[in-house]
Amino acid sequence: xxxxxxxxxxxxxxxxxxxxxxxxxxxxxxxxxxxxxxxxxxxxxxxxxxxxxxxxxxxxxxxxxxxxxxxxxxxxxxxxxxxxxxxxxxxxxxxxxxxxxxxxxxxxxxxxxxxxxxxxxxxxxxxxxxxxxxxxxxxxxxxxxxxxxxxxxxxxxxxxxxxxxxxxxxxxxxxxxxxxxxxxxxxxxxxxxxxxxxxxxxxxxxxxxxxxxxxxxxxxxxxxxxxxxxxxxxxxxxxxxxxxxxxxxxxxxxxxxxxxxxxxxxxxxxxxxxxxxxxxxxxxxxxxxxxxxxxxxxxxxxxxxxxxxxxxxxxxxxxxxxxxxxxxxxxxxxxxxxxxxxxxxxxxxxxxxxxxxxxxxxxxxxxxxxxxxxxxxxxxxxxxxxxxxxxxxxxxxxxxxxxxxxxxxxxxxxxxxxxxxxxxxxxxxxxxxxxxxxxxxxxxxxxxxxxxxxxxxxxxxxxxxxxxxxxxxxxxxxxxxxxxxxxxxxxxxxxxxxxxxxxxxxxxxxxxxxxxxxxxxxxxxxxxxxxxxxxxxxxxxxxxxxxxxxxxxxxxxxxxxxxxxxxxxxxxxxxxxxxxxxxxxxxxxxxxxxxxxxxxxxxxxxxxxxxxxxxxxxxxxxxxxxxxxxxxxxxxxxxxxxxxxxxxxxxxxxxxxxxxxxxxxxxxxxxxxxx
Length: 675
Prior knowledge:
Layout: E1 2-3, H1 21-31, H2 33-36, H3 42-49, H4 58-83, H5 95-102, H6 110-137, H7 148-161, H8 174-193, H9 205-214, H10 218-225, H11 232-237, H12 239-242, H13 244-271, H14 282-285, H15 292-323, H16 345-362, H17 365-368, H18 374-393, H19 398-420, H20 427-453, E2 457-459, H21 462-473, E3 479-488, E4 495-497, H22 498-507, E5 511-523, E6 529-537, E7 541-549, H23 556-569, E8 589-597, H24 607-620, H25 624-627, E9 635-641, H26 645-674
Parallel strand pairs: 3-5, 3-8, 5-7, 8-9
Antiparallel strand pairs: 1-6, 2-4, 6-7
C-alpha cells in the first residue's frame, strides 16, 4: 500500500534575487574580490618577466596591457559573464553545480569535475598568500626596512582565526568597501592616464596580437597576463549568492575600473623609464605620495575581503562535494543565520597552514607569482569541458557547441602552456596541492563505487515482511528499541540490502515495535526537498524515501521524526512508548547504520591501493553518524563483510582441501595395502 503523505519542494530563494542598487553593491563585495585585487601584482609580474633593458619599452607594455584588456573581454566577459552564467542549476553556479546538471547522463565526467574542484581548492591556498603579501609589500615604498613576512603571517593567522565567527553583519559592508576600492582604482588610473591618453591605443587588439607573435618572451609573460582573470571562476561560483543580473550589471563597472587602472599603470611605466627596476610595483607608484599610506591600508583591506570571500568559497565547494559524494564527510558549522554561509574547521586549519607555508617558502610576491595561475587555468579548462556536455544535454546545435568550446579551450590551453613554464619555479606547489586533493576525491569516489558494486539485495516481499513481524512478536528476543530505523541505499521500495538482512535476522535479531527503512537520495536540484512514505505493513513496517538537493543539510534524524509524526497524524502508526509506566511519552528510537568491511576479498592490484586509501580516509574523517546528523546515543553502527559471496568461496576452498586430504589418506592406505 503506497501512501504519499507529503510531496514538497524547497527551491532556492536566491534564484529570484531582486535587481537593484543593493544587489549590485553586494555582488561587487562578494564576487569581485579576487579579480579586483589583481592590479596589485599583474603589471608588476609582467615587468619582472621582461628583458632587463625592455622594462619601459612601449611595444612590450602596450602589447601586454592590450592582452590584459582582451583577456578580460574574452575570458571573463564573454565566457563567464555572457555564456557560463546561463548554465545555472536553479540559480546556483560553480563547477560542481554544473557537474550536478550533467552527471546522470555523463557519469564519467566526475573526473573532470574533481580535477576542476581540486584546482580551485589549490588556488585557495595560494591566492590569500600572494594577495596579502603584495599589499603589505607596498609599505616598502615608505618604510624600506619594514619586516614584510612577519606582518603577512600575522594577518593570515588573523584572517583564519576569525573564520569561525563568520562575517555576519560585517559582510553587508563588504560591498560598500569594495565599491569604494574599485572607484579608487579608477581614479588612480585616471590620475596617470589623462596626461598620456595615447596609451588608449592598447584597446586595439593588433597590439596584443603583435605582442604574442613578435615578443621573444611572450609565452612567459602570458602567464603573468593570465593573473588578471583568475577571479573569473568566482563569478560563476557566487551566482547563487548574488543573482545573474546583479553580477552582469556590476561587472560593467568593475571591468571599466580595472582597465582604467591597468592603463594608468602602463602610462606611468612608459613615461617614467628612469624609475623602473625589476622589483618596482607600478600599482603603488601611480599613487600620489600623500596618498600612499592610505592606499596601502585600503589595499590590505581589499585583500582581506577578497581572501575572506575565497575562503568562504572553499568551504562551500567542500560542502557541495560532500553532498554529491565527491568528498568524505567533515563536520560543517553554521556561524551565522545567513543562508549558504558555512564553516569547516578542518579545512580552515589546512588552508591556514598552506597559506603560511607558501609565504614562508616563497618569501615574496615575486616568487609566489611563479606558483600562481597554473591551478586556476586547469580549473577553467575543466569548466569549459563540462560546459560542452551541458550544451549537449540541452540539445544545443553542434555548430554552436563545438566551435565555442574549441575557441575557449584554445585560449585556455595557451595560458596553461604559458603557466606550465613556471612549474619548476613554483608552479609545482599548486599542482602538488591539487594532486593531493584529487587523490582524496578520486579514491573516495572509486572506493565507494567498488563497495557498491558488491551490493546484494533481498526482496522485501511478503515472506520477508512476515519474518520481520515474527521477530517483532518473539518475546524471547530482547527488545532493542520501540522504533527501529535502518538507513538503506536500495532504490526500490521492494528491496533491501543483504547486509541489513544479516543485521536484522542473523548477527543479532532485532526486535522492535515498528521498523522503518530510510532511503536518502541526493538530487541534482540544489534546494529540492521531497519525501514519500510507503506503508509496507500498517502500524509495523514503513519505507521513507528522502529526496534532498545537494545544498540541503542532511538532518536525517530530524526529518525521520517529523515524517513519523506526520504518519501518526494519518492514524497509520502509534509512536507512543509500549512500556506501561511511560505510555504517555513517545517511544524510543534507534538508528542502525550497517557498514561493510574489507575481509577475505580478492581485489586486483589496481584497486587495492585505492581501497587502502579509501579505508584510511574513512577512518580519519567524520563518521556516518555525524554525516547524517544523528544523535550518537540513538545510533548503532554494525560491521559486516563487504562481499557475502566470499564465504561461499571459502567454503568451496575448504571442501577442496578436505577432498585433497581424503585423496591423500586414501593414497597412503592403498600403498600400505600393496606393501
